[in-house]
Amino acid sequence: MLRRWVVSFINPSHTNRTFHTSKLLRTAQIIDGKKIAGDILNEVKQSVESWVQAGNRRPKLVAILVGHNPASKTYVSNKVKAAKSVGIDSETILCSTDITQVSLVERIQSYNTDPSIDGILVQLPLPKGLDEKKICHSISPSKDVDGFHSENIGNLSSDKSGIIPATALGVRELIVRTKIDTFGKNAVVIGRSKHVGLPIALLLHADGNGETGALDMTTTICHRHTSHMDLQKFTLLADVLVAAAGVPGLITKEMVKPGACVIDVGITRVKDAQGKFKLTGDVDFNGVKEIAGFITPVPGGVGPMTVAILMKNTLFAAQHNPKRT
Length: 325
Ligand code: BQF
Known about the structure:
alpha/beta; six-stranded parallel beta sheet; three-stranded parallel beta sheet; disordered N terminus; binds ligand BQF
């Protein structure tokens, strides 16, 4: 009873949540990433149709898949399907594991100068021997739909419009479309990867008056060298807690502020009892949902958003590609 009061006191605006009559506890609203991603895909599809109606060629995405990583194959096939569903043309380029750095860069350069291609992505991680950084930087910034090129990260860091990494933009869209209060509130991002944790933190902390649609939050980045005791001190202050560490079960209910919005970016493939692969996040979902106000599931949370936003980025690249034919 007391906790119910505490939860509604701290976060009186929560409606529409399931109610455990047996325990007299409210559980978090589950943020349906699959549904929100579907909404975004519908919006992109409409924008693609008006773009084509206006006499422009259909946007085209090239996805480069190197080697045989099964997770990478799944991700590329998710992207190809999403492209098809919104009317974006796509081509998958399969490269053997032993392709050299030089020949991969040469292929990318040929797509950079091909005016019929709007977006290029190289599925990560790459096999050993290939330098991810150099390869990502060989993609022309205007076709870099993953937004990993320094020019795109630089624009994001300077509050300038441009291509924003899809997972980060997906996290922002989940927060904004769920109408979470963010202005002047506290955010904690766990994970400092250049492709995920860092751009998420940039979008959360920066000035909403800039061109990137940032959220004006007081933002802390925690990472592998944050001591676990300090980690809990930080996370307990978070109104928005973003877990992007890739450590299953890292976030337990003791670490979560009552009513907080918990976004689980972690995606680890684990074998279940039947030996089948399933995805698991960084958050102990069942425990944390008793404390949080909002929570994203894995699967069906951030993952589908990443793919949907990639389509938005591809349309953006097409509309900003100076030499397209
Ligand atoms: C879902 C990715 C780690 C490293 C490289 C839907 C995806 C995943 C999950 C997906 C990811 C993760 C992608 C779900 C693309 C997200 O239903 O929960 C879609 O396809 N993703 C990637 O391209 O590279 C990664 C995670």
